[in-house]
Amino acid sequence: MRIFKKILLIIGVLIALILIGGWMFLNSLKPDYSGEITLSNIENETTVYFDDYGIPHIYAQNQYDASTALGYVHAQDRLWQMELMRRIAPGRLSEIFGIDMLKNDRFFVSLGIEEASKKSIEKLDKNGEVYKLAMAYLNGVNQFIENGPTPIEFTLIGIGKEPYQLKDIYNVLGYMSFSFAMAQKTDPLLTILKDKLGDNYLKELNIDLSPNTTLIKNSKSTIADFSEMVASVNEVMENSPVPPFIGSNSWVVSPKKSATGKVLFANDPHIGYSQPAVWYEAHIVTPNYEMYGYHLAGVPFPLLGHNRNYAYGLTMFENDDIDFYKEENHPTDSTKYKTPDGFETYKTVTKTIKIKDAEDKVIKVRSSRHGPIMNDALDAITQNEPVAMSWIYTQFDIKVLGALHTLSRATDIKDVKKGASMIHAPGLNIMYGDAKGNVAWWATGKLYKLKPGVNRNFILNGASGEDDPIEYLDFSENPMAENPPWNYVYSANNQTDSIANMLYPGYYLSEDRAKRIVQLLEPKNNWNRESMSAMINDVTSGVAPELIKEFAENTDYKSFSKSEQKAIDVLQLWDGSNTADHIAPTIYNKWIYLYLKNTFEDEMGEKLFTQFLATHLSKRMIAAQIEKDSSIWWDDISTSNKIETKKEILSKSMVEAVSSLEKQLGSNMMDWNWGKVHTLVHEHPLGKVAALKSYFNVGPFPMNGAREVINNRVFDYTETGLYKVNAGPSTRRIIDFSDIENSISILPTGQSGNPFSKYYKDQAEMYNKGEFRKMKMNEEEIKRVSTKLTISPKK
Q1: Got the DSSP string for 382-399?
Q2: Do 674 and 579 meet the contact criterion of CB atoms below 8 Å apart?
Q3: d(CA 719, CA 503)
């Protein structure tokens, strides 16, 4: 008996020791939010106060020490995210995730981002402040990499830590720039539809086809290649462990429209949801500089920011900065292609992609004078007819890092405008407001013209030279507004006014959000922080009730069953508000999906229709198509001896919507709450593993909002009737220049990317409810609520 007790005691002690050891190990992985550390290459003692949401407030004697401190604290909270971000552009995800990421790596390694980064770094002034501050930031990052605890993700996957380099910063910005683009989804698709269905169908999609437009001829095999190209690029972006940039809202009201007589600034960039969230907030104070900024992982200068003098933010311009060119190979030598001056040899580079638990993959990437050949970047495309991608980002010197430095170190409105002018890609709307009462916005991007009749909506002719750009516009011709007489500026990814005597081509979204923003801003002249807070959380669609009205006027109410009539009644009484407890949004979105499906899928086919749904076109066509009493698209070509009408398609879609919802959610319509089908999970890359899901993912949550309302929630339309939110506001910021220290913000989950940090998901419920927290700038208040980390120079 004694022996048995001793064995039990020993087992108990061992279990206790294991638990204690495990507890100590996990605690050792937490970020240091207090205490004292020493760092090399800083001149003076620097203090970091972490406030009650984990935001670092860095007080330093100079900007270089502040940048080193920023790099260190950024890495301790987000090193895993930084590791992922830097691996995308150079094609290094397979190295840690295995063969599943090979398609992504092959695609991105072919785009030329890494080569463009290298060229730009070579031209960077090594004695300039941009370089020195970036290196100071990297110094801080790398000291954490060398001396700090290894994030749990590195251990679980089995990878080592590597020093961060300047090229990594540029590669992160390159990936960000590509994620804005839409041409890779749209141009090949429109080319397919043109060849498959003809001009009349495209005109009904509101695609401009002028009589002068000359289009290249394509074979059936080429059309199949274009379809695979769209599918492959969609798959690459969907499988990326780092979310793409989607769209955004922003508006800035002048003193004449505010209750306080000061500028009010609002911004909520729309980005794919993930865990950790995109932005890392940091407040830096030195004797000659202050900035409260929002940083991308691995980037030393904020993309969004404010101080006591000015605020800036961004939305996506959605301009077209990618064109595709079909090249013509030499008839007997496939290493050459046709140009206006004769045949030239493709430039070829060899890339090696390392793959975890598999042999390295060696690929050869050809480039023409237009850019990389997509046939080499995507396995699914045959080698018969090469298609080159011409992307503005890789064709000019990349000055984005310098632009971000200029934006974040401005002294007046002219400096911010200068910073905007330095960004040739991606296309952004830089939004601005200041304490002096100025409001403005500038569209960034190197815009260009093609010859009349050249339609960049389609794949262009690469051989003739006739489809090449003929003029690059000066920044002064870009869309912009400075202190307009209507006393506000706004952007919601909608089409801008004409510039250089033309409407600039792009992938602009529907006017739903823009109309709602103007509808709310225009009549009101007493805006304050509270009314701005309500507006940025607005979930009402101004377009949906109009579409329901159009439906009612074009269908026969008596022809529907009792349950269908009840659904129509719910929709007709609906004000367009998309809250989680409402029933109408569930009915409306099912009906919209089926209306699109019944209108377009019979002509397009299932695959092309799915690709169509992933483009801006489908959103723009929801309202545009339903307004057309007669259209070639209304007819269902799968039926014989009959031509369907608008009334029949809309009615059929409502009948199918109600039937489908009854099967999915039951016959009691009161149970069809929007929050049951409209949900959000902030997914960590390791959260795809079932056993790790509960530790790394945040959610699921039932969500307010919907597609193309101000509180924008992006989701895909599918047959399932489930609307899994995959993108939305990446932050909500409201800057009040009448009370700058009480300006407010929120993040979707939390400040930290470390799952053991108490700041990993502490803002999630607040974010879901539309609540805010202060962006603290008052030193006394900061010290009162914060923990203190002291950084001393290493002797």
Answers
A1: -SSS-EEEEEHHHHS---
A2: yes
A3: 36
Half-sphere exposure (CA, 13 Å, Cβ side) for 443?
30
- Please tell me the pTM assigned to this model: 0.92
**pLDDT greater than 50 at residue 534:** yes
- Select from 598, 625, 586 the least CA-distant residue to 715: 586
Q: How far is CA 185 from the centre of its chain?
A: 15
Q: 731 near 600, Cβ under 8 Å?
A: no
Residues 6+ apart with CB under 8 A from 72: 37, 39, 140, 141, 143, 144, 148, 791
Residue 408 has pLDDT above 60, yes or no: yes
- Secondary structure letter of residue 636 according to DSSP: -
Say how far apart CA 148 and CA 789 lie, in whole Å. Answer: 14
CA distance 536 to 728: 12
Cβ-Cβ contacts under 8 Å for 2 (sequence gap 6 or more): none
* Residue 619, Ramachandran bin (φ over 0: left; ψ between -120 and 50: alpha; else beta): alpha
Nearest to residue 46, comparing CAs of 301, 234, 284? 284
Q: Please state, as a whole number, how many other Cβ atoms lie within 10 Å of the Cβ of residue 394.
A: 23
Q: How many CB atoms lie within 10 A of CB 58?
A: 23
Tell me the C-alpha to C-alpha distance, in Å, between residue 166 and each of 173, 263, 361. 11, 37, 26
Are 449 and 470 in contact by the 8 Å Cβ rule? The answer is yes
Residue 189 burial class via C-beta count within 10 angstroms: exposed 0-12, middle 13-18, buried 19 and up: buried
Encoded tokens for 40: 């090399």
pLDDT-derived band at 11 (thresholds 50, 70, 90) equals low
Cβ atoms 413, 440 nearer than 8 A: yes
Residue 349 to residue 365: CA distance in whole angstroms: 5
How much is the pLDDT for 27?
Answer: 60
- Left if phi > 0, otherwise alpha if psi is -120 to 50, otherwise beta: which for 769? alpha
CA 724 – CA 714 distance, rounded (Å): 8
pLDDT digits (tens, 9 = 90+) for 194-242: 888 888 888 888 876 554 444 444 444 455 556 666 666 777 777 777 7
Burial class for 575, CB neighbours closer than 10 Å (0-12, 13-18, 19+): exposed
Q: Are 219 and 290 in contact (CB under 8 A)?
A: no
Distance CA 387, CA 367 (A): 10
> pLDDT tens-digit profile of 329-344?
999 999 999 999 999 9
Tell me how far apart the terminal alpha carbons of the chain are, to the nearest angstrom: 61
Residues 6+ apart with CB under 8 A from 487: 253, 254, 256, 257, 439
Taking the C-alpha atoms of residue 386 and residue 270, their distance in angstroms, rounded to an integer, is: 34
The H or E element containing residue 702 is strand 698-702
Cα separation of 83 and 164, whole Å?
9
Tokens, residue 568: 């129509």
Residue pair 734/529 in contact by the 8 Å Cβ criterion: yes
Helix axes 113-123, 166-179, angle to 10 degrees: 130
C-alpha 138/C-alpha 125 separation (Å) is: 17
Alpha-helix runs per DSSP H in 714-778: 764-769
Residue 63, pLDDT above cutoff 80 = yes
* pLDDT of amino acid 611: 87
Q: Report phi then psi at 784, rounded to 5.
A: -65, -35
How many CB atoms are located within 10 Å of the residue 221 CB?
Answer: 10
Preceding omega of 287 cis (within 30 degrees of 0) = no
Nearest residue to 175 (alpha-carbon basis) of 106, 237, 121 = 237
pLDDT per residue over 71-80, tens digit each? 999 999 999 9
Helix, strand, coil shares, percent, the chain, to 5: 40, 20, 40
Are 492 and 509 contacting, i.e. CB atoms less than 8 angstroms apart? yes
**What's the token pair of residue 554?**
């074009």
Q: Which pair of structure tokens corresponds to residue 513?
A: 């959000």
Q: How many angstroms separate the CA atoms of 749 and 758, rounded?
A: 11
